[in-house]
Sequence to fold (57 residues):
Amino acid sequence: MRHTSTGGLIYLIIGLIVANSHGYFVALTSGGNLLSAMLAIVAWPLVLLGVNLHLVL
Fold:
């Protein structure tokens, strides 16, 4: 059980780093920007592949 939580924590830390480096934390003033940042953290492999997860609401 401990390996799963450690792996999940590492996955989220990498997601935070990738999302930050791709500008998802620049302007978290609206719900759409916050949702984009959260989505980028969880789906960071897609961000590295060039998928744009910036939502426009």
About this structure: The radius of gyration is 12 Å. Residues 2-48 form one domain. The CA atoms of residues 13 and 39 lie 14 Å apart.
